[in-house]
Amino acid sequence: LATAYGANQTNVDAGLIGRASVEGTTFTDSDGNGLRDESPAAPLSGVQVTLTQNVNIPGRLSTTITRVGTSTADGNYSFGGLPGGAAGQADFSLSFTPPAATPAWQPTLADVNNNGNDANDSDGNLSGQALAAGATESRDQGYYQPVTISARVFRDSTLPLNNQWDTSEPGISGVSVVLEALPGNTPVATKATDSN
Predict the structure, then answer these.
(1) Which of 22, 31, 62, 103 is the most buried (most CB within 10 A)?
(2) For residue 46, is it left (φ>0), alpha (ψ between -120 and 50) or beta?
(3) Tens-place pLDDT, residues 118-171
(4) CB of 96 within 8 A of CB of 43?
């Protein structure tokens, strides 16, 4: 590029490539405790991750960046080449959309260890997260599939008694059934039987 001494060259543009990144893992949290403690590890692939970054670096860059990605077979996702800055200059938000399933995936508890170990817990949908220049921030999301437990309390009245429900045997209503968690048999829910 040749320019005469003292002349202005106004037809040359340049782009800025950021060096910060946001990454994380989406995982199956079958016990719903908000921690990535399954053994063996249980990644959840196919989760759509949307990053929105509001950038306002005075004198340098003012824009909104939106990136959409999908977690891979190992549950990982990554957004690189992002601008970073001081708090409030390059903050980002994340939202997660799990793949369709029956029953539907539900987000697990978020930040159960109060940021004590962000590499090990579920962070959930987030907003206003600071991204410093050159930094790599890690945010994870866990999911579980709810289950339904059903049973019948009945009067075993058909002879011979067989400890099995027969269609002619009536249900007993008003019986209090307690669901307990193991170990320790800690009660977690109580429900009374209906007329069936």
Answers:
(1) 22
(2) left
(3) 667 888 888 999 999 999 999 999 999 988 888 889 888 888 888 888 888 888
(4) no
